[in-house]
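Q: My labmate handed me this sequence with no annotations at all. I'd like to see what the chain might look like in three dimensions before we decide whether it's worth expressing. Could you predict it?
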Amino acid sequence: MAHQTYAALSVTDNIAHFIVLKKVDAKIEALFMDEFYRDELDKSDLWFLKFFVNKSDSIPGKPKNISIVLDRKILFIHTFPMDTGLTKEKENEHMNWELSQHILGYHAKEYLSDTHVLRATPDKQKKEILSVSIKRSYVYEINDKVTAKNYSLDYIDATHFASGDLLFYNHPETKSQDVLLVALNNSYIECSRYSSGKLTDYQSRIETEIDGIVQFIKYNFTKEKSERIFIYGAKATTETLVKLRTDISPHFTILNPFLRIDVNNIKNFNSFTSNLQNFIPTIGIALRNI
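A: Here is what I predict for the chain of 290 residues:
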């Protein structure tokens, strides 16, 4: 019986979530899960790794790989238009200019950036670019901490995009549909559109009030009709779901993080039931390895 074990850690605001998943043939099992908060006196940028460093030798399943997802307060996520006829060198120049307009003291050599073409309009010779940037030194520090505990660092990604992996795992039929995935966090919201499994749009906004959330989603939903809309995050409550279904569309669903994951090995699972939504990015990035 073949099996693989992977660990994942996510950070949103001042709370981190950790999970270990094991694949046994076609079945996914959760072996361990926990959450921990940032100490008010802890000023370290890598505060979320302390739990992992302290527990790494006793983590169930003995995983040797870990992936980490970070929220947009740590990463810089940006979308912008770009001409389609540019050379690779000119594209890099354009991206660096864009980032320099938004990141104080930006120097290209100090950052790692991943780019994705969201959509192209050949008739206008334009394409919409998504870039995710992080300080190079920050990645190196994370990797040093991980490798010091004899783990391999697989992925570093944004919480919202890792959540898309869970969406497609839970609902594989959405890979051939037009769907929206909406993160309702405590201080901001993120909205991405997937068309036949491909990310084609991304928007975000600082928003805490339900009426503002409704207006933001309504704008993104009405630009192009979506067959299904999934919400998740700290504010993805039943009350919010009813409001969205009433004001916008009956096609809203709360993403269930453990829909297709066996949790029988998690003896204290019920202690997390009030905040299971917070584990969605963590599970998503772990599933990417499986």
